[in-house]
């Protein structure tokens, strides 16, 4: 059976969509800086390592939207053997020698563009860009054997919630074709305040996490999307996301969820700031 036929074939069950945290740089493959808890990233790492088993069905391929790639319109990586893009700075030398020899899937990239085109969403393809750390770092934990093809898709540079919900809706059929759709970001991403213990900073982070969880777990689809589109009005929104590129991958996962409900699958305070992951379906 050809790769294209495999992608088009239905699985025995619809795959969920995910919004996962990818941590800070190569955090799972190094010791935390001096002065920080030695187990700072351990629980997040354990969550990512447990995803394969918790999903229950191994996908035929994965489509990932990372907070680290923005283009004028959705762009898919078409490389058969995508390289890695070490787009982090100032970390230990060994973290620039990490490997993740995962195959790409030109067939899945083509299918993504086909679905976007059917929804009248213009798209592009990119044959050379490597998988950035928002992809290869968490997936080294999720699928450590690099045995499931991965295609990365960019964010639209407008970083508009409604735009990305629409992109997700267009891609919903992939879930019945063996494709796991993953938004990779961080539900809290204010690097300036990340290590602050100012009570106002902590309260704003907690308020936004509470709001975000309520929005994602809203049982009514129309109400859920309305809340997510209005995320800038949420308490603590700008404090948690001075720039929204690490939140917007959630919108693709939520859009592709359709009527499937959302639930929080991971939550913990990182130096006082709650970080959450969500699953739809």
Shape field: globular
Query: Helicity level, as a percent range?
Result: 25-40%
Question: Can you say what the CATH homologous superfamily is?
Answer: LigB-like
Strand content: 15-25%
Count the domains. Answer: 1
| CATH architecture annotation | 3-Layer(aba) Sandwich
SSE series: HEHHEEHEHEHEHHHHEE
Structural class: alpha/beta
Oligomer: single chain
The major pleated sheet works out as: 6 strands, mixed
Rounded Rg: 18 Å
Quickly name the level 1 CATH class. Alpha Beta
The total of helices stands at 10
**If you average the pLDDT, what whole number results?**
95
CATH fold group: Protocatechuate 4,5-dioxygenase, Chain B
State the separation between the terminal residues, measured CA to CA: 28 Å
Query: In what order do the strands lie side by side in the largest sheet?
Result: 5-2-6-1-8-7
Question: How many strand elements?
Answer: 8
Low-confidence residue ranges: 1-11
What does this structure look like?
This protein is α/β, with parallel strands linked by helices and 281 residues long. It has one domain: LigB-like (Protocatechuate 4,5-dioxygenase, Chain B), CATH 3.40.830.10. It contains 10 helices and 8 strands. The strands form 2 sheets. The protein has a 6-stranded mixed β-sheet, sandwiched between helices. A two-stranded parallel sheet has the order 3-4. It is globular, with a radius of gyration of 18 Å. The relative contact order is 0.21.
């Amino acid at each position: 059976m050809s790769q294209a036929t495999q992608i088009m074939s239905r699985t025995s069950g619809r795959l969920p969509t995910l919004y996962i945290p990818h941590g800070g740089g190569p955090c799972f493959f190094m010791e935390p800086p001096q002065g920080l808890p030695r187990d700072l990233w351990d629980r997040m790492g354990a969550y990512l390592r447990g995803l394969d088993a918790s999903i229950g069905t191994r996908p035929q391929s994965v489509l990932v939207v990372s907070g680290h790639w923005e283009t004028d319109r959705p762009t898919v990586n078409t490389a058969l053997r995508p390289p890695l893009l070490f787009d982090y700075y100032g970390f230990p030398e060994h973290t620039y020698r990490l490997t993740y020899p995962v195959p790409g899937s030109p067939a899945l990239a083509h299918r993504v563009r086909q679905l976007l085109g059917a929804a009248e969403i213009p798209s592009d393809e990119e044959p050379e860009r490597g998988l950035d750390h928002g992809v290869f770092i968490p997936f080294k934990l999720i699928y450590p054997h690099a045995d499931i093809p991965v295609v990365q898709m960019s964010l639209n540079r407008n970083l508009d919630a409604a735009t990305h919900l629409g992109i997700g809706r267009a891609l919903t059929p992939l879930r019945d074709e063996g494709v796991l759709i993953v938004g990779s970001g961080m539900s809290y991403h204010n690097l300036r305040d990340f290590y602050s213990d100012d009570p106002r900073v902590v309260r704003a982070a907690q308020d936004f996490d509470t709001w975000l969880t309520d929005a994602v777990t809203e049982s009514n689809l129309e109400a859920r999307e309305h809340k997510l589109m209005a995320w800038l009005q949420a308490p603590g929104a700008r404090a948690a996301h001075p720039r929204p590129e690490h939140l917007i991958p959630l919108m693709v996962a939520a859009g592709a969820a359709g009527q499937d409900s959302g639930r929080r699958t991971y939550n913990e305070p990182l130096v006082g700031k709650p970080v959450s992951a969500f699953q739809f379906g």
